[in-house]
Amino acid sequence: MEASRDREDWADRHVARWRDHWIDVSFEDDVEAIVVRIGRLTKHLRGVKQQALLATGLQDFEYDTLHLLMIRDTPGHASPSALAADLGISNAGMTGRLDALENAGWIQRRADADDRRRVDVEVTRAGAAVWRRAMELRGRGEDELLHVLDEQERATLAGLLKRLALAVEDPEG
After folding, report:
1. Cα–Cα distance measured from residue 45 to residue 155, given in angstroms and rounded to the nearest whole number
2. b/e burial code for range 136-150 (CB count within 10 A of at least 16 → b)
3. Displacement of CA 42 from its chain's centroid (Å)
């Protein structure tokens, strides 16, 4: 682990290049390096997700919709309007997504037992299986990346990232 701190990475080279270009601009090396590394890691994790989707035959919108359905307080069940709100899309856009997922056999829509005018979206066994497979593949890639750190380092990183996330979620707090 110590040896990796001495090795130069892409962010180190980036910071060194930019430091020379921005002589008249306030430039903090550590801030730039952190932001660049977060960007590179985000790009890597997007690639891990794309590989998992390719292996399972899911498209981004299918995975994202199944994922939101599966991680709810009511796993595998939601109203179309609740899903649309969670995904930040219109009800019409949600209808198109649900049509595609239903045609693939990954969800089914049912009339609400208490109010037949309402619809409940439910993940099918096939939908849950394809989502779990994508999650397994995605998780494997995430584990490979993060297990270059030991348990204490991961806990420290998680705490630091939480502080940053809280600053974004509640700038006043």
Report:
1. 19
2. ebbeebbeeeeeeee
3. 9
What pTM did the predictor assign?
0.81
In angstroms, the CA 68 to CA 77 distance is 10
Distance CA 49, CA 138 (A): 5
Structure tokens at 135: 């999650």
What domains are defined for the chain? 2-169 (1.10.10.10)
β-strand partners of 112: none
- Averaged over successive runs of 10 residues, the pLDDT of the chain (173 residues) comes to 72 81 75 90 96 96 95 92 94 94 96 83 96 97 96 96 91 75
Beta bridge partners of 78: 121
Q: Is 105 in contact with 4 (CB distance < 8 Å)?
A: no
